[in-house]
Amino acid sequence: MTDRFRLPAEWEPQDGVLIAWPHAQTDWAARLERIEKAYVGLAGAIARHEPLLICVADGAVRERASALLSAAGVDAARLRYVEAAYDDTWLRDSGPLTLSDGTRFRLVDFRFTGWGGKFEGGRDDRLIETLIARGLFGSAGHRRIDWALEGGAIESDGAGTLLTTWRCLHQRHPQMTREEIDALLKDALGASRVLWLEHGYLEGDDTDAHIDTLARFAPGDAIVFQTCDDPADPHYDELARMHEEIAGLRTADGRPYRLHPLPWARAIVDDGRRLASSYANYLVVDGAVVMPAYGDPADADAARVVAAAHPGRAVVAVDARELIWQNGSVHCLTMQLPAGVLAA
Predict the structure, then answer these.
(1) Neighbours of 320 (CB within 10 A)
(2) How many CA atoms lie within 13 A of 305 on its CB side?
(3) Residue 102 domain flag
(4) Mean pLDDT, rounded, for 254-276
């Protein structure tokens, strides 16, 4: 894979992490003060380990974010702001997927449709072009692909294997066969094979089963995945079937993956609506893993599983109960940028 572009694994070295600050014109408006507090916790956890690039809608949003982060003691030298228009803050799905051939970089820019047309996404769809115009990425190439794909829908092991769910990509492209989608993903992302999961979903997830809420690659041919141990829970059978599928997957050289099952948090319900409290939706940064926590007894067990799957990294838990109100968590809000891609 060294002689062509590939999608690095998340645990490879990074230049920083990209987020977008919530403001009154986003869907966070109804709970803005509460979500800003959660964002301060998330930003502080990331900035302790590497630079944080913060998209802001305008100067007023920048001043607000800067004041909140300063009051919380977040190191301003770790922060960089970039002004850009955006509909919402889920940068895992609207931010760039960055490929590298070892010396050069290519920003892959898929069409963003608001998760299959559920929400307005026109400004989010132009975000990568805006960031390039701001000079964020230096000499990195840019490949626009007029085909709907969100970053949370795929996982890469950095060595040519992608992991995804049929439920999501079939919903986005019902007219395409699996073989056609498989070929497109390989070409666009420099992959040699695609592994598909048929099962797995979470209530409160409006992405049609993004893989990053369900199962994640980890170093050394490992997979971390969400389980449910409550037979009375509506997720029990579906996640048990997903477990069986994952256990049947094989590495590129034919070996079973090392499996790290995550515990199940108790149901979190908001105004009668169950929220998607997945532990799989964590972010890997240099030296650490930023893991969502839900004020649940299972938080500590989840941290131990994540630590075992990512040896040598500290596990930093951030309270994600406000984040999941809008149907996503830590990983959904962030996009890592591989080492070398940012302009000085």
Answers:
(1) 30
(2) 25
(3) yes
(4) 96
Helix 32-47 vs helix 59-71: angle between axes, to the nearest 10 degrees? 70
User: Position of tokens 């916790």?
Assistant: 41
Answer whether 238's CB lies under 8 Å from 205's CB. Answer: no
| Sheet of 283-285, strand order | 283-285, 288-293, 314-319
Residue type, 125: D
**In this structure, are residues 92 and 331 in contact, taking their beta carbons and an 8 Å threshold?**
yes
User: At 339, is the secondary structure helix, strand, or coil?
Assistant: coil
Residue 277 is assigned to a structural domain of this protein: yes
Task: Kindly compute the dihedral angle of the four CA atoms of residues 208, 213, 214, 219, in this order, to the nearest 10 degrees.
Answer: 140
Residue 179 CA to residue 161 CA, distance in Å, equals 15
Between CA 292 and CA 324 the distance in angstroms is 10
Number of domains in the chain: 1
State the pairing for strand pair 105-111/314-319.
unpaired
pLDDT digit string, tens, across residues 308-331: 999 999 999 999 999 999 999 999
pLDDT beyond 80 at 195: yes
Is 8 within a domain? no
Query: Which pair of tokens denotes residue 308?
Result: 């075992």
Q: Has residue 127 been placed in a domain?
A: yes
- Residue 286: CB atoms within 10 Å: 18
Catalytic-residue membership of 332: yes
Q: Which two tokens stand for residue 277?
A: 């409290």
Enumerate residues 6+ apart whose C-beta is below 8 A from 194.
Answer: 161, 162, 163, 164, 181, 182, 185, 186
Cα–Cα dist 172/276, whole Å:
21
DSSP 151: G
Q: What is the residue range of 157's domain?
A: 14-338
Digit-coded pLDDT (tens) for 51-99: 999 999 999 999 999 999 999 999 999 999 999 999 999 999 999 999 9
Cα–Cα distance for residue pair 287/151, rounded to 1 Å = 22
How do beta strands 283-285 and 273-274 pair?
A: unpaired
CATH of the domain at 18: 3.75.10.10
283-285 vs 193-197, strand pairing mode: unpaired
Determine the distance from the C-alpha atom of residue 237 to the mean position of all C-alpha atoms in its chain, rounded to a whole number.
25
